[in-house]
Structure prediction request, 151 residues.
Amino acid sequence: MGCRGAVQRMNARRKGAEGERELAAELRRLGFGAARKTSAMYRPGDVAPDVSGLPGFHIEVKRTEVLNIHAALAQAERDCAPGELPLVCFRRNRDTWRCCCRLADVPAFARAVTDALRAAAAADPWADAAQAGQGQVSCTSSGTTGQEDTA
Prediction:
């Protein structure tokens, strides 16, 4: 069992590293300057975020089929540097990326996303035209998405 456990840990570590690269690529595609970071880029004792690219946030990446979101968010909260807010990004096999943060952090998250996208648009004015219509949701004047609520 000892050898099997070591192989499972190695596979989990590899899957985690692949998840970090996937998320960084997805964030870049969405207009964020995300790059995968390693702990070697930080001072001893500091905990590096799994992915950088959203200033003011400590991004914890989880690439697993079963996630304890409370434990993942607690880990991100513990690992945050002073002034950073925790954000957990996670994905199961053959599923889309999702993120979770504390409700109180949503306004700061919205500002950070808006600022990052504005900075990306200022750096590349053609990016908006190239990505027009990708991943956008249009809203009606009533604030709904225009999709019927089937619930």
